[in-house]
Every structure is written in C-alpha cells, then in structure tokens.
Amino acid sequence: EAQVTQNPRYLITVTGKKLTVTCSQNMNHEYMSWYRQDPGLGLRQIYYSMNVEVTDKGDVPEGYKVSRKEKRNFPLILESPSPNQTSLYFCASSRVPQSSNQPQHFGDGTRLSIL
Amino acid sequence: GNSVTQMEGPVTLSEEAFLTINCTYTATGYPSLFWYVQYPGEGLQLLLKATKADDKGSNKGFEATYRKETTSFHLEKGSVQVSDSAVYFCALRDRTQGGSEKLVFGKGTKLTVNP
Q: How many whole angstroms separate alpha carbon B104 and alpha carbon B92?
C-alpha cells in the first residue's frame, strides 16, 4: 500500500530537548516536504526536498532542520524546541516533476506539544 | 506571492443540503488548483484537481471548475452527507524561481453535516 508514515503520532516534551520526527514514503517519490498546521493559518511549508541531498527552506523554516540522506526518508529535527513550535505537523511526498500533476501524498500527522 | 483565499468556516449544514465553499486565488501564470480534505484525526487527501482554465475536477459527488476570469475554484456538492464532515483546503501549485514547486494552501473550511 502506498503511504507516507510519520512517527511519532503524538509527542509531549519540554523546551530545549532535541527531538526528531521521522517521515518515510514507499512510493519512490523524489519530492518530500514538511508542513505545520495551525488554527486560522492553514498549512505552511517548513522545508522541502527535491531529491537526495537537495533541501531548501519553505515559508517558516526557523527553528527546524531537515536532512535527506536517503530517498525514502525525510526527518524533521527540532534542535531546541520552543512552545511556539507546538503544532500539528504533516509530511508529504510526490513525484518530480510536479508539472506532471501528480498529487502530494500526506502522512497522518504528528501532534507536538512543547511545554 | 501567490496566495489562496477560501471562505471562513465553520459551515454547518443538514444532510442533503447543497454545499458551496468559495475559493479564490492570486497567482502569476496558470497554476494547477486542488481541493484537499482532512477527516478528523487524519492527514490530507486529494479530493479533486484541475490543471487549466475551464477544467472541472470531480470526485465523490464534489465538483469544482477552474475559472480564470474570476480566479476562482469553488467547491460544490449537490447533497451532502454526514460522512462529508471534515476540513476542506483549497490549494494551488506554485513554482518557485529555482524551478521547485510547492503547494500554497488556504486556511481551511470546517464543514459539519448534521443528520
């Protein structure tokens, strides 16, 4: 089954304690992306990756890091989490070029609470 | 930059009522347009899409027509069901100067359908 898998689904942690949210896709997609969803703001892109070792900032990259060492994995790293990073996070993937009109496939989300 | 504006919710309807969720966009060129749906506790799923002017996307009884003259992509359904209760996101595919692409989302409209 084609899917995007995020872990963990839920996490409550404290300010300053490094955490990583993993994302893995089994569709051999080149493009992967992280979004955060906040009430009244919709989804905003954090980082994206066009292929292995190719990453770039989205609209709200501050406080986050990513890596793309393998095609299937795109972890999101919060080196020193702060309460304003409390949010619902989604990973997505799709084929490239996107002008082929392939839709993005989304994971089920990770709800992070930073105390 | 490119942007999407959709009607604010929440929207509450009775079963079998007619649904319209308005979406307008601002973009250079002719982006592809999408509606995504998010059921409670789940990630986003592509509902329908349109890639050029006058295209009509349709799926599960929902329809939306790409209107270039009014820069709109309104979502409609003739008879909603309780199972349609979800959050609906309008989105456009934006191409960056570097050649990469991303989805730009509206803020989402929560729909509740009562029996």
A: 5
User: Cβ contacts of residue A34 below 8 Å, gap of 6+?
Assistant: A23, A45, A46, A47, A48, A58, A64, A66, A74, A76, A89, A90, A91, A92
Question: Is A104 an interface residue toward B (CB < 8 Å)?
Answer: yes
User: How many helices (H) and strands (E) are present in chain B, helices listed first?
Assistant: 0, 12
Between B43 and B80, residue with greater pLDDT: B80
Gap between the Cα atoms of A45 and A35, Å rounded: 4
> Which residues, numbered 57 to 96 in chain B, qualify as contacts with chain A under a Cβ-Cβ cut-off of 8 Å?
89, 93, 95
d(CA B111, CA B10): 6
A100 touches chain B (CB under 8 A): no
Give pLDDT, residue A100. Answer: 46
Task: Give the per-residue pLDDT at A36.
Answer: 96
Confidence band of A22 (pLDDT split at 50, 70, 90): very high
Q: Do A44 and A57 meet the contact criterion of CB atoms below 8 Å apart?
A: no
Inter-chain contact A42–B107, Cβ cutoff 8 Å? yes
Measured between CA atoms, the residue of chain B closest to residue A55 is: B100
**Average confidence (pLDDT) over B35-60:** 92
Q: CA-to-CA distance for A10 and A25, rounded, in angstroms?
A: 19
* Whether A36 contacts A45, CB under 8 Å: no
pLDDT at B102: 77
